[in-house]
Amino acid sequence: MPEESGLPVPPRASFEPTLPADPNLINLHDYERVAAERLAPGPLAYFTGGAGDEVTLRDNRAAFARQAIVPRVMRDVSSIDTSVEVFGRRWPSPIWIAPTALQRMAHPDGELATARAAAARGVTMAVSTSANTDVADIAAIGGPRWFQVYLLADPGGRRSLVERAVANGYEALLLTVDLARIGRRERDLRIGFRIPEGVDIPNVAIAAGVSPEDVASVAFTDRLTWPDLEWLAGFGLPVIVKGILHPDDARLAIEHGAAGIGVSNHGGRQLDGAIASVDALPAVVDEVAGRVPIFLDGGVRRGTDVLIALAMGATAVGIGRPVIWGLAVDGETGVGNVLDLLRAELENAMALAGAAAVADVTADLLA
To answer: What residues form DSSP beta bridges with 176?
Structure first.
């Protein structure tokens, strides 16, 4: 802009991108590529693959590409506020870490590295029942945390598993409901995937009262029904039901005590051909009608993906695989970089879409 106009000339630096510390790692796709080079074949198949022909796995990404953002202009976006309130806590951004099992297959520090990176940023981490780290050790790091629940078949072990999470200050329980049985994950089958020796699942072992070597013998319930949700809600923590795709199931979940709905197809790892998470979101949002928060996961790789999900009615979005990529590349630092990159992309997307705060990310921003 010419100076003689009488208007100030913005400093050139305000229009220049910040140079990345590593030009080979400037987005989450780069982390995925480098992680694939570093992970052993078995863990790579486990973390990367989906069920069957991986139609749903691919469609989770393609569904975001089918959406189009219609930005607003001439709005004051000189300051962007990405924060949201969830269950009484103010989150720095609408991004949380979805539960991912067996993180020590990606890095020796596993969940401890992820928890440290999350805690340093105030990001909520959901810890898997199949974590390689004791829930108490993760809790000792601090930071906001949820516990993801698979219900054991034995009633005593089931109660013990949940009680330990409650006693260690986990703020919510995330009941995963789309695992009536394991999906047919053909990458795992082709490579003959087995959990590596020494990669234990201590929380299940402690709850079931077995040695780490005998965890494989511990049975999980194969009859998960709505009364199980009511039982879990009885522990006094908010329960998010994760794995909802049908709006009627969202309604039933709320009727039986759910404090939140998790729209998810398990990252394409369960029923191949299932609807993409973000495609399922609008009908669930309509059915829930603001009664409880809605959390989405599946295919989120860009800040624009987060923007799209928020505009469609999600309260917050979870990332799973990208955290594993960061962990495999550079442990705690890698996870932190992944979280920072996604938040920075979201802030940039909000500014360019004309949304100064998350409340401004509304449905009219989408075609």
So the answer is: 242
266 catalytic residue (yes or no): yes
| Residue 63 dihedral angles phi and psi, to the nearest 5° | -65, -35
Q: Please choose, from the candidates 161, 38, 153, 157, the residue with its C-alpha nearest in 3D space to the C-alpha of residue 105.
A: 38
- Beta strand 84-86 with 89-91 is antiparallel
Written as one letter, the residue type at 227 is: P
Residue 172, both tokens: 């919510």
Is the entire prediction scored with pTM above 0.85? Answer: yes
| Main-chain phi, psi angles of 122, to 5 degrees | 70, 25
> In degrees, to the nearest 5, what angle opens at C-alpha 228 toward C-alphas 225 and 229?
100
Kindly state the tokens that stand for 152.
Answer: 């054991």
Which class would CATH give 23-365? Answer: alpha beta
- Taking only Cα atoms into account, the Rg of the chain, rounded to an integer number of angstroms, comes to 21
Total Cβ atoms within 10 A of residue 52: 17
Question: DSSP readout, 21-65?
Answer: SSTT-SSHHHHHHHHHHHS-HHHHHHHH--STT-HHHHHHHHHHH
Q: Are 14 and 73 in contact (CB under 8 A)?
A: no
Residue of 136, 159, 146 lying closest to 209 (CA atoms)? 159
Q: Active-site residue among 29, 246, 256, 266?
A: 266
The phi, psi pair for 206, rounded to 5°, reads: -65, -45
Instruction: Convert the pLDDT of each residue in 138-196 to its tens digit.
Output: 999 999 999 999 999 999 999 999 999 999 999 999 999 999 999 999 999 999 999 99
Write down the domain spans for the chain.
Answer: 23-365
